[in-house]
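Here is one chain, start to finish.
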Amino acid sequence: MSVYVGKDVTITVQVPVEEDVSSQANGSQAVFTVTNKPISDRDLDGVADEIEHVTVYVNGSEVNVSAVDDSEGQVTLASAPAQGSRVIIECRYDTTPNIAQEITLEPRQVTEGIDGLGSDVIQQWAVLLKEISGKIKETYKMGSKLHLERVTKNKYASLYSQQFWVAGALDDFQGDTGNFSVDNEELLVANNNGSTIGVKNSVLTVFRNGIVKCKMKYYTGSGDAGWIFRWDGTTQNYYRAYVSGLKKLKIDRVKDGNSTNLLESDVLTLPGTMFPVEVKFVEEKIIVDVNGNVFTVIDSNPLLISGMPGFYAYFGQNHRFDNFEIWKETSPHEYGMIVKWDQGGSIVRVGLDKVVFLEGSVPSPKNRPTFIVTPFKAQTVKTIN
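Its structure:
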């Protein structure tokens, strides 16, 4: 049975995020700032600035948090990590509240039973599942993506992080390492040669699907520079995504020694400072985000092998890189959601936790009012005082 919860409701979605803030670990810094804010009330108790709103890992181990400022996105650790430490903050952040027409919930409890030894009675054996199914109905906004469509994604897990604090950072890599150097706490393409380096298998187990995040500073007038993935350690097999000397993004597949260009963009407008790049590769699909410019390619003859991620340069001397991170997608993200509406002059707030958007949004039939219905499932629901 569906339970009507509210009409004309305000919905705040809490988006889970794992952020690598290792670049802020300078040996004396105990306060770390996340990019996405405000930090959410993750335990849904209506109290702001609680340490329960975040989890912090330093070099893989959970550490104590002494204070949290939700609105400023600041997390204070009990002690400052050493310079070069790998610092990961897990939390949620609040999206801009969205107005929906209505929301309904359908609580459900599934149990396992056994036959009552010949009788017509089924004996309860164990509760297997407590689940709340729900639907959000919102007005379709012509020309814009729906709020709830924008936030649905899978969970990321951090595999590797390198901030290039010291020259020894190159010890993590194999290949043409002599053509690179660590300069001013950044990775520099030092020699004007073609070169490829990747994270050693002894440092990071090779993998097939993942995400490379990095910052780059483009050196005007120099050659190609960028990233590789699925590299087998030879010149025969890998992908490369790079910014060419003509300021174009290119994606190539090198398979059995043969290079094939899969994408070449128009000329990019790039700043003279560090800018972010994300390379996501899942089976035959490759998505590259260069400073907010997103490019997608589907490879019709994909190189589906496990391999190393790393860097590529071809006569690209003086290009620079920083904040090199490797992530992987895991299970679907579990969101939080706060629903608020006016009921007889009183404001009601309901919190839903472990919310999963599995099916996407579905438009209503053409002969009815133009609404979008977004189904979801949650594991807990509570009233927030």
